[in-house]
Amino acid sequence: MASTFDPIGAALLDYVAGHSAATITVHSNVAEDEPLPAKYFFRTLWEMPALERTALDQCRGRVLDLGAGAGAHALELQSRGFQVKAVDVSPGAVQVMQQRGVQEVACHDVFELSTRHDDVRYDTLLMLMNGLGVVGTLEGLEQFLQLAHPLLVPGGQILATSADISYLFEDEDGALVFDLNAPYYGQVEYQMSYQEQTGPTFHWLFADPTIVQDYAEAAGYEVEFVDEDENQQFLVRLTRR
For 28-58, what is each residue's pLDDT tens digit? Predict the structure, then answer.
């Protein structure tokens, strides 16, 4: 059934089985369909964007990698001696991470963290590949920031990437045109397909820097924008007060 199909997991499993051309098709309500090669989830350190390499260098202590995919970041951190737990909602992705040697893996979404981790606390929560988007909506961002707070040691950090996609709403003159009656423009609706099967619809949040700062400060975090790139993507550090 479409509601239970795991497109990312199926593609990642095919890739590790030798199907190097495995490619997911990404559908959204803001852009044309785009291909997403499974290979991208298996990139090495020097194939990663600069923002991701910077984030890995900023990690400290015990790390919780959220939305871990095929485990590229978790494996790199393990190789540096970090204790890492990798979490993904995709059962296929979790199976791939286990096959690749990620030592501690769990399958659930980010809103189940507080009931799944008992008394474990982390120094770093890592959310890469526009990873903050996994919260889905502005309400989800508010909920996640509250859930994450007790998971962090005092002074612990969330390292997350996000992007401002307002450029998608520019008219020919460069002015921004938003529907003021619609939800926040950064709340995007997605579906993914693989081999003629389509997964469930889900929401992904592209939170601009102002949104991130406002919501994080309201939830009791100190906010530091660490780096940004030419595509309006940025790396932010949220530190537990």
Answer: 988 899 999 999 999 999 999 999 999 999 9
| 2 in a structural domain | no
Question: Is 69 within the bounds of a domain?
Answer: yes
CB under 8 Å to 10, separation ≥6 — which residues?
92, 194, 195, 197
* Number of domains composing the chain: 1
Digit-coded pLDDT (tens) for 144-193? 999 999 999 999 999 999 999 987 766 666 656 666 667 898 999 999 99
CATH number for the domain spanning 226: value is: 3.40.50.150
Distance between CA 223 and CA 221 in Å, rounded? 6
Structure tokens at 6: 């795991």
Alpha helix positions (H), the chain: 7-16, 50-58, 72-79, 91-100, 113-116, 138-148, 209-218
Q: Output the six-digit token pair for 217.
A: 């400060």
> Is 121 part of a structural domain of the chain?
yes
- Domain interval for residue 48: 7-240
Q: How far apart are CA 116 and CA 151, in angstroms?
A: 11
**Bridge partners, 86 (sequence order):** 65, 105
Nearest one of 162, 187, 184 to 238, comparing CA atoms: 162
**Any domain includes 116:** yes
